[in-house]
Design brief:
- By secondary structure, the chain is α+β, with helices and mostly antiparallel strands.
- It has one domain: Ub domain-containing protein, DC-UbP/UBTD2, N-terminal domain (Bacteriocin As-48, Chain A, Up-down Bundle).
- The protein contains five helices and five strands, in the order αβαααβββαβ.
- The strands form two sheets. Strands 2-3-4 form a three-stranded antiparallel beta sheet.
- β3 and β4 (96-98) form a beta hairpin.
- The protein is globular, with a radius of gyration of 15 Å.
- The termini are far apart.
């Protein structure tokens, strides 16, 4: 416990509970194949945005996991979750990791491949 003006400790920030992303709509309807291509392209290039490759790997694993496992992954990797849907995260050194919604969930206007 701290005074009313104190900020949460890093431990409290790091244990922020993850939530499923809110429903969202892509500007144009995507097929599952197109969505997979976008995701693969993002994860292939993500380490070039800065930060540590190990954190990017942990974020990818968490994005592909169910919410309970995702929570365990980010906690064990020391990821500080700034937004509960994982769109903005930080590592312990303060590097920022921004994840687009399309790597975290499916859009509402997804077209299923036949």
């Amino acid at each position: 416990m701290g005074c009313a003006g104190s900020s949460p400790s890093k431990t409290e920030e790091a244990t922020k509970k993850l939530q499923k992303p809110k429903p969202w709509k892509h500007p144009q309807a995507l097929t599952m194949t197109e969505l997979r291509r976008l995701r693969d392209e993002f994860w292939d290039t993500a380490p070039h945005y800065g930060g540590q490759k190990e954190i990017w790997d942990a974020l990818q694993a968490a994005a592909d996991a169910d919410i309970t496992l995702a929570q365990a992954i980010v906690d064990s990797a020391g990821v500080i979750v700034a937004s509960a849907d994982m769109t903005t995260c930080y590592d312990e050194r303060g590097a920022k990791y921004e994840l687009p919604k399309y790597v975290l969930s499916e859009p509402t206007n997804l077209i299923r491949d036949s």
